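Field reference: sequence -> structure
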Amino acid sequence: MSAPIVNVHAIRAIFLFEMARTWRTPMQSILSPVISTSLYFVVFGAAIGPRMQAIDGVAYGAYIVPGLIMLSLLTQSIANASFGIYFPRFTGTIYELLSAPVAWWEAVLAYVGAAAAKSILLGLLILATATLFVPLQIAHPGWMLLFLVLTATTFSLFGFIIGIWADGFEKLQVVPLLIVTPLAFLGGSFYSIEMLPPFWRTVTLFNPVVYLISGFRWSFYGVADVGVGLSLGMTLAFLVACVAAIGWIFRTGYRLKS
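Structure field:
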């Protein structure tokens, strides 16, 4: 009997193992990010929002919701995926995975799928929580889910790369804290880049997070800083780049066997 084309059992086993870690620590994995983001809704949405001028016809409290969801989605996707693959490297169980009859893309699919699933669940919970504080409308729900899934998947792939690159627990936090979070705050989470002077508006367009937040916000209110097609294209380009990088890592064994 010929072997199956896809090792579904292996993918399912890794996926369920990673998801089980979330259910063992619900306070840290789910409640903590939801509560932290809710504080932004309370302060900027309910307290300061009514005193702020509407942006593109959207109340300020509602305008910042897509950016805050995206901020949490980016950081959690990276954290979930990076720790998921780093821990087997740290304990040495990565050798069992490398010697098992599992293709590299099957392992990546399982680890990244679990990380993305957790981030998507978290994003939907934050979205539901936001409705308690500010009025929301979703003009294009299909596009909203598409950007949610693509962003979670892309940054879970990015987190997987970080988890292989890192040689210590502290390095798992370097990129999210010092690079991704500042880029998210400077990428239009709390404002429209059209409000910036021309020079800084041009500089901001080199921030890749701008395209994620802009496309996601467009799915809610039909307003965007850049075209939705460009936002989608940039997201897909980053996804393809991450997949190519992971493929190179498994072909060369970079930091997998050291």
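Note: The chain has one domain: 8-252.
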